[in-house]
Amino acid sequence: MKTMTLLALVLCAGVVHAQQYERDRPRADSFDDRRGDDRDRGEDLQLVCYGQAEKIVAESRTGYQWNQEKHRYEPKSELTTGKSDFDSALNVSIHDDRGRIRIPRQLIPPMNSGGSDGWWDIEDLIVGHNEIRGRFRLNALNRPTIMIDRRNGTIVVDGMIKFNGRCDQDSGHRRF
C-alpha cells in the first residue's frame, strides 16, 4: 500500500511539474522582456545624415619638363592619387534586423557590386541600445564599416570611402 501511495505521489508530482512547465514556457507569439526577445518590437529607423565625405581620386597630369642632357623641354605625363573632400548627405534605413544605406553617387566606385536603386544592403548589422554597427559591400575590395552613435547622432563610414557626419530622424513628411 505504501508503494502504491508513493507511486501515485510521484505521478501527481510529475503531472503538476509538466503543467507548471507548460504554463511558464514562452510561446512563439508572446513577448518576454526577461529574455530580451525583440521579435515583436523591431526597430524602424529612417535617418538622413549630413556631413563631410572623402574619396580617393586619380589625376592624370601632362606637361613639359626640362631635360638637362638634351637642353630642351620634353613632354611628361604622370598619374597621381589624392583625396577629394566634399559636403554630402546619405540615408540609412533600418527595419527589424535588416538595413540599407544610400550613399552619394560621387562615392560609388566605377566597378561596384550594383546595389539596388542606389541602396546598398548593410551586412553584419547590430542595432544596439547606444550604437548601430554594420558594413556594406561596394565591391570585392571595398567593404566600408558604418558606426552610428545613437546618443549624439554621429555617423562614421570608414573604408576606401569615408564619411563623417550627423544624423537626424527622417519622418518622411515634407517640410513645405
Task: Please estimate the helix content.
Answer: 10-25%
**Helices and strands, in N-to-C order?**
HEEEEEEEE
Low-confidence stretches: 6-40
Mean pLDDT across the residues is 80
Inertia-based shape = elongated
Count every beta strand, where a strand is a DSSP E run of 2 or more residues: 8
Question: How many separate domains?
Answer: 1
Structural class: mainly beta
For the biggest β-sheet, the strand order reads 1-2-3-4-5-6-7-8
User: Hey, roughly how much beta strand do the residues contain?
Assistant: over 45%
Number of helices, counting only DSSP H or I runs of 4 residues or more: 1
Q: Tell me the distance between the termini.
A: 87 Å
Question: What's the gyration radius in Å?
Answer: 30 Å
Describe this structure in words.
With 176 residues, the chain is mostly beta strands. It has one domain. It is built from one helix and eight strands. Strands 1-2-3-4-5-6-7-8 form an eight-stranded antiparallel barrel. A hairpin with a 4-residue loop joins strand 6 and strand 7. The longest helix is centred in the first third of the chain and has 23 residues. The protein is elongated, with a radius of gyration of 30 Å. About 20% of the residues have low confidence.
List keywords for this structure.
176 residues; eight-stranded antiparallel β-barrel; 8 strands; 1 helix; mainly beta
